[in-house]
Amino acid sequence: MKVPLTPFLMLLSAIAAPAWGQEAVDVRIGAVLASNSGQGFDPRLVSMRRQFHTLFPYTSYNLVKEERQRILPGAKAGFEIPGGRYLLVTSSGMKDERVSLHVMLIEGSRPVVDTALTLRKHATFLVGGPRHQGGVLIIAIGADPLPVSVEAAPISHQ
Q: Is 98 exposed, middle or buried, given 0-12, 13-18 or 19+ CB atoms closer than 10 A?
Protein backbone atom coordinates (compact mmCIF):
# COMPACT_ATOMS: atom_id res chain seq x y z
CA MET A 1 0.00 0.00 0.00
CA LYS A 2 1.31 3.40 -0.98
CA VAL A 3 0.95 6.32 1.48
CA PRO A 4 0.72 9.74 -0.17
CA LEU A 5 3.80 11.72 0.75
CA THR A 6 2.13 15.11 1.33
CA PRO A 7 -0.20 14.06 4.20
CA PHE A 8 2.67 12.11 5.80
CA LEU A 9 4.94 15.19 5.72
CA MET A 10 2.15 17.38 7.11
CA LEU A 11 1.65 14.94 9.99
CA LEU A 12 5.39 14.79 10.66
CA SER A 13 5.74 18.58 10.67
CA ALA A 14 2.77 18.91 13.04
CA ILE A 15 4.37 16.46 15.47
CA ALA A 16 7.84 18.03 15.24
CA ALA A 17 6.77 21.68 15.46
CA PRO A 18 6.18 23.27 18.86
CA ALA A 19 2.66 24.51 19.55
CA TRP A 20 2.28 28.19 18.65
CA GLY A 21 1.58 30.37 21.60
CA GLN A 22 2.07 27.72 24.29
CA GLU A 23 5.18 29.21 25.86
CA ALA A 24 5.21 30.03 29.55
CA VAL A 25 5.56 33.74 30.25
CA ASP A 26 7.79 35.45 32.81
CA VAL A 27 5.70 38.43 33.99
CA ARG A 28 7.56 41.31 35.69
CA ILE A 29 5.74 43.90 37.74
CA GLY A 30 7.40 46.92 39.33
CA ALA A 31 5.89 49.65 41.49
CA VAL A 32 7.80 52.92 41.19
CA LEU A 33 7.15 55.85 43.53
CA ALA A 34 7.57 59.05 41.51
CA SER A 35 7.59 62.46 43.15
CA ASN A 36 9.02 65.97 42.98
CA SER A 37 10.74 65.69 46.36
CA GLY A 38 14.43 65.32 45.64
CA GLN A 39 16.39 64.38 42.54
CA GLY A 40 16.93 60.64 43.14
CA PHE A 41 16.77 58.01 40.44
CA ASP A 42 16.81 54.38 41.58
CA PRO A 43 19.80 52.62 39.93
CA ARG A 44 17.63 49.52 39.32
CA LEU A 45 15.61 51.63 36.84
CA VAL A 46 18.55 53.06 34.91
CA SER A 47 17.72 51.14 31.70
CA MET A 48 14.35 52.97 31.58
CA ARG A 49 15.56 56.44 32.61
CA ARG A 50 14.73 58.02 29.23
CA GLN A 51 11.18 56.59 29.23
CA PHE A 52 10.47 57.86 32.75
CA HIS A 53 11.76 61.37 32.02
CA THR A 54 9.94 61.52 28.67
CA LEU A 55 6.57 60.25 29.92
CA PHE A 56 6.34 61.66 33.45
CA PRO A 57 7.06 65.11 34.94
CA TYR A 58 8.74 64.00 38.19
CA THR A 59 12.27 64.51 39.53
CA SER A 60 12.56 61.43 41.76
CA TYR A 61 11.91 57.76 40.91
CA ASN A 62 12.25 54.95 43.46
CA LEU A 63 11.45 51.27 42.83
CA VAL A 64 9.45 50.31 45.94
CA LYS A 65 8.41 46.80 44.91
CA GLU A 66 9.32 44.30 42.23
CA GLU A 67 7.87 40.85 41.60
CA ARG A 68 8.08 38.17 38.91
CA GLN A 69 5.87 35.20 38.23
CA ARG A 70 5.97 32.53 35.56
CA ILE A 71 2.58 31.68 34.10
CA LEU A 72 1.23 29.51 31.30
CA PRO A 73 -1.22 30.74 28.65
CA GLY A 74 -4.67 31.16 30.17
CA ALA A 75 -3.29 31.16 33.70
CA LYS A 76 -3.61 34.11 36.08
CA ALA A 77 -1.08 35.70 38.40
CA GLY A 78 -1.78 38.19 41.16
CA PHE A 79 0.56 40.95 42.32
CA GLU A 80 0.09 43.07 45.43
CA ILE A 81 0.68 46.75 44.70
CA PRO A 82 1.51 49.24 47.49
CA GLY A 83 -1.45 51.12 48.93
CA GLY A 84 -3.74 48.09 49.16
CA ARG A 85 -4.09 47.57 45.42
CA TYR A 86 -3.92 44.31 43.51
CA LEU A 87 -2.88 43.63 39.90
CA LEU A 88 -4.32 40.56 38.18
CA VAL A 89 -2.51 39.46 35.00
CA THR A 90 -3.65 36.74 32.60
CA SER A 91 -1.43 35.48 29.81
CA SER A 92 -3.10 35.00 26.44
CA GLY A 93 0.02 33.41 24.91
CA MET A 94 2.48 34.48 22.24
CA LYS A 95 2.28 35.29 18.59
CA ASP A 96 4.88 36.82 16.27
CA GLU A 97 7.39 37.34 19.10
CA ARG A 98 4.82 39.29 21.15
CA VAL A 99 3.28 38.41 24.49
CA SER A 100 -0.43 39.14 24.99
CA LEU A 101 -1.72 39.92 28.48
CA HIS A 102 -4.97 40.93 30.10
CA VAL A 103 -4.30 43.31 33.01
CA MET A 104 -6.71 44.39 35.74
CA LEU A 105 -5.75 46.79 38.56
CA ILE A 106 -8.12 46.42 41.51
CA GLU A 107 -8.52 48.97 44.29
CA GLY A 108 -10.75 47.82 47.12
CA SER A 109 -13.33 45.68 45.38
CA ARG A 110 -13.52 47.52 42.07
CA PRO A 111 -11.32 47.42 38.97
CA VAL A 112 -9.78 50.81 38.15
CA VAL A 113 -7.90 49.57 35.08
CA ASP A 114 -9.05 46.69 32.87
CA THR A 115 -7.18 46.37 29.59
CA ALA A 116 -5.37 44.10 27.15
CA LEU A 117 -1.68 44.59 26.28
CA THR A 118 0.58 43.13 23.65
CA LEU A 119 4.29 43.51 24.40
CA ARG A 120 7.39 42.79 22.37
CA LYS A 121 9.94 40.56 24.08
CA HIS A 122 11.87 42.48 26.78
CA ALA A 123 9.51 45.48 26.50
CA THR A 124 8.03 47.27 29.51
CA PHE A 125 4.71 49.11 29.61
CA LEU A 126 4.49 52.01 32.10
CA VAL A 127 1.15 52.99 33.63
CA GLY A 128 0.84 56.22 35.62
CA GLY A 129 -1.11 55.17 38.65
CA PRO A 130 -2.67 56.39 41.87
CA ARG A 131 -1.36 58.88 44.42
CA HIS A 132 0.82 57.29 47.07
CA GLN A 133 2.99 58.70 49.91
CA GLY A 134 3.39 62.22 48.55
CA GLY A 135 3.84 61.11 44.94
CA VAL A 136 2.30 58.74 42.44
CA LEU A 137 2.84 55.07 41.74
CA ILE A 138 3.96 54.14 38.26
CA ILE A 139 3.36 50.50 37.48
CA ALA A 140 5.85 48.83 35.15
CA ILE A 141 4.56 45.71 33.37
CA GLY A 142 6.84 43.47 31.35
CA ALA A 143 6.71 39.91 30.01
CA ASP A 144 9.07 37.53 28.26
CA PRO A 145 8.44 34.07 26.80
CA LEU A 146 9.94 31.02 28.51
CA PRO A 147 10.31 27.49 27.16
CA VAL A 148 7.41 25.17 28.07
CA SER A 149 9.87 23.02 30.04
CA VAL A 150 10.33 25.80 32.63
CA GLU A 151 7.99 25.01 35.51
CA ALA A 152 5.58 27.79 36.44
CA ALA A 153 6.73 29.08 39.84
CA PRO A 154 6.65 32.52 41.45
CA ILE A 155 9.80 34.57 41.95
CA SER A 156 9.35 37.58 44.15
CA HIS A 157 11.63 40.41 45.33
CA GLN A 158 10.56 43.12 47.72
A: middle
